[in-house]
Amino acid sequence: MILTVTLNPALDTTYAVDTVIAGSTHRVRSVEVRAGGKGLNVTRVLAAMGVPVLATGLIGGDNGDRIEALLAADGIAASFQPIAGESRRTVVATDGAEATGFWEPGPRVSATEWNTFVGHYRWCLNRASIVVLAGSLPPGIADRSYAELISLAREAGTGVVLDTEGPALRRALFAGPTVVKPNRAELSAATARSVTGVADAVGAARSLRDGSATAVVATLGADGMVASTANGHWHAHLPAPLPGNPTGAGDACSAALAAGLLRGSSGSSGSGGSGGEPKWPELLVEAVAWSAAAVAAPAAGMVDPDRIQELRPAVAVEEI
Amino acid sequence: MILTVTLNPALDTTYAVDTVIAGSTHRVRSVEVRAGGKGLNVTRVLAAMGVPVLATGLIGGDNGDRIEALLAADGIAASFQPIAGESRRTVVATDGAEATGFWEPGPRVSATEWNTFVGHYRWCLNRASIVVLAGSLPPGIADRSYAELISLAREAGTGVVLDTEGPALRRALFAGPTVVKPNRAELSAATARSVTGVADAVGAARSLRDGSATAVVATLGADGMVASTANGHWHAHLPAPLPGNPTGAGDACSAALAAGLLRGSSGSSGSGGSGGEPKWPELLVEAVAWSAAAVAAPAAGMVDPDRIQELRPAVAVEEI
Fold first, then answer.
1. Which chain B residues are closer than 8 Å to A20 by Cβ?
2. What are the distances in angstroms from CA B314 to CA B233, B288, B320?
3. pLDDT confidence tier of residue A273, bands split at 50, 70 and 90
């Protein structure tokens, strides 16, 4: 089973409007709400692909109740730790072509709430072979917190996929996650390097690994993705980029990486996901196909399994 | 007592952001929520000025609970009719200078819910001398609905201030509200005339009255306001416009008009607010001073009584 951790889940609100013009007011034609945050997008992709998954994290207030109800309605297993603050909302206004987004920061989490969550996370870890840590940290949560969760996962023999940015990413690397999945901008910021082409990305990913056992899989939008691992470096991509909505493509990549690690872990000695190096070229085919299917889907956290089936043969993986 | 009717109240959400750029995403630095909708802005201005006021209307869902809690926290008397749908939210993203707003349409109201509300409104009317009908109609409410509420108020001998636009305004005029308060754009749309200067505005206001007993007070932003009534026509304004936030200035004008009608009604035979023609020049001084104080206040629905006191002597009223 895969455990996903969403420390700052969101009630994602999408407004259908005519063209957004800064400084003016807009009548909203329709309102859609979804359970969001990177970790929950990963969760929904895994569920859509039939991979056993449990969502945990911190949740609170009316928005939190709404998020839990939306997950339950989608048949997604969740066990969140309640907090006193109210979970955030995101608002995206879209005319169908262009999207203008507003990200609330999220509730302040107390030290007591964090410690209670860590206890709950340990309980969840005992049931999981792979854990996905994804998204931003809400206010009050220390930058070292992902490092703490990674250390506990390693003690439990559980493989870790990490998708975050900034100080939380830099602090987490020292704890030795199995895979980190930055996008181009996050990779550039974390390594203080300009990342434009594939060669830049491989160099920056290698620098981020810094000789460790952690694999870096960087998503590059239309350029596909690059992987830098202890066993080699690859560039994986489609022959041509797909049109669609890139929001959530990175989350589908994290889901594919976690699902691949889960398959690897069940084939190993049973000591959990950290046993055995993944078969990278195959894993990258999955990651590109799942991401591309997410681009083709109408919203983040959705993929069509048939579309993934069609896309797999088109993915090219080149060793670098 | 003044009764305010808000058929489409809103949970007004203000996001503090850096400059809004269409098509990009924005980190929200802080989130503020307020009870909003034109009728509730009028209510809060009246309460701030010590005028007895009761708020009614239609409310529902988590957003509705939140609106009621915010009103209660401000010590505002409210008696809303619950509905099954969820009250809308508005989102305004501001960098302190420019504001970009998104207006949700509001919940669909059933015929049964409307009929139940009309019964509740009649009960409230028995306690009121003046009623303020302000704002948009939510989906499902017929354009003639304000006309229905105005007719019931007239039967009860209660004066009516109406602030709405479009078909709801045009249909309501035939029912004979005491005062209607369009802004420049609403006046222009309702009369199909271009309204740029004060002379245009007086002509359009006169045309909107169409010889009826209804007074038209049109707010013109920096140009102050014009009134067209059965007893004369006036232009009221400050010597120079004030800097500030114009959102809610029209609502403060409606509040001043209602408060003026209430004073007039208590001096009359006791048959309610529709007895006796208001003293227009004095009423317009109040309306301009309250509106200008709203411009000087940080948010819609707020006025500082001391500021109004300072502003009154500066207001010029010219008969046309």
1. 22-23, 100
2. 20, 10, 19
3. very low
Please name which of A260, A244, A235, A238 lies closest in space to residue A302, comparing C-alpha atoms. Answer: A244
Provide mean pLDDT across the span B282-286. Answer: 96
Phi then psi for residue B25, to 5 deg, are: -105, 150
Q: Mutation target for A interface from B18, B24, B25, B165: give the one with most A CBs within 10 A.
A: B25
- The backbone torsions φ and ψ at residue B269, rounded to the nearest 5 degrees and listed phi first, read -70, 0
Residue with tokens 């309204």: B195
DSSP 8-state secondary structure symbol assigned to residue B138: P
B65: closest chain A residue by CA: A62
Domain A2-319 class in CATH = alpha beta
Residues A86, A62: contact at Cβ < 8 Å? yes
Please tell me the predicted confidence (pLDDT) of residue A300: 78
Domain limits, chain B? 2-319
**DSSP state, residue A132:** E
Nearest by CB to residue B21, choosing from A17, A22, A91, is A22
Which amino acid, B67? Answer: I
Strand, coil or helix: B168: helix
For the question of whether the overall pTM of this predicted structure is more than 0.95, the answer is: no
Report chain A residues whose CB lies below 8 A from the CB of B22.
19-22, 98, 100
Structure tokens at B29: 């630095």
B101, B92 Cβ separation under 8 angstroms: yes
Cα–Cα distance for residue pair B25/A60, rounded to 1 Å: 24
Structure tokens at B274: 């529709």
Which of the following is catalytic: B18, B163, B251, B304? B251
